[in-house]
């Protein structure tokens, strides 16, 4: 389903954390203990997680209160460095399984169970960016989400 013309690798588990760390430090940012904890917590979620969910879980595992605001800031940093993706219609985040390369991911969000998977199709995202450019608008971040039912919920 994914269409790629480059060396694209999707990661999971430990190799995903490693790929995220490499991407962030490669961008000149520090991989602090807190950032690492937030990323690992995010990566554990198969469904999009809110900053509030992550803060709540981290407060438990770290044994002291973690403010949702500090989680928000870290998630923002992750999004701007391609480590995480924001699922707008769910107001939540997903770990980016391909932190090593940039795509305008297309999210498939299940209305029943909330699961969000994603596909990459650069032809479609290029066309969407082209529509904006054609209207004299500079596209920064196309958001393409499809709501529906996943295979498990049909
Ligand atoms: Zn790729
Ligand atoms: Zn993608
Ligand atoms: Zn579902």
From TrEMBL:
Binds 1 Mn(2+) or Fe(2+) ion per subunit. Binds 1 zinc ion per subunit. Belongs to the Fur family. GO terms for molecular function: DNA-binding transcription factor activity; transcription cis-regulatory region binding; zinc ion binding. Zn(2+) binds at residues 110, 113, 150, 153. One of its GO terms (biological process) is negative regulation of DNA-templated transcription. It comes from the Bacteria. Its cofactor is Mn(2+); Fe(2+); Zn(2+). Fe cation binds at residue 104. Transmembrane segments: none annotated. InterPro entries: FUR, Fur_C, WH-like_DNA-bd_sf, WH_DNA-bd_sf. Keywords: DNA-binding, Iron, Metal-binding, Repressor, Transcription, Transcription regulation, Zinc. It holds the Pfam family FUR. This is Transcriptional repressor. GO terms for cellular component: cytosol.
């Amino acid at each position: 389903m994914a269409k790629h013309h480059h060396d694209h690798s999707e990661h999971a588990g430990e190799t995903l954390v490693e790929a995220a760390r490499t991407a962030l430090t490669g961008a000149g940012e520090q991989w602090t203990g807190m950032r690492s904890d937030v990323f690992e917590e995010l990566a554990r979620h198969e469904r999009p997680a809110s900053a509030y969910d992550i803060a709540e879980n981290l407060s438990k595992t770290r044994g002291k209160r973690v403010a949702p605001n500090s989680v928000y800031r870290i998630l923002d940093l992750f999004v701007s460095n391609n480590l995480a993706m924001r699922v707008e219609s769910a107001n939540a985040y997903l770990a980016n399984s391909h932190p090593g390369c940039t795509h305008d991911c297309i999210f498939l969000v299940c209305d029943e169970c909330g699961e969000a998977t994603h596909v990459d199709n650069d032809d479609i995202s290029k066309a969407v960016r082209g529509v904006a450019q054609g209207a004299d608008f500079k596209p920064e971040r196309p958001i393409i989400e499809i709501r529906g039912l996943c295979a498990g919920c049909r």
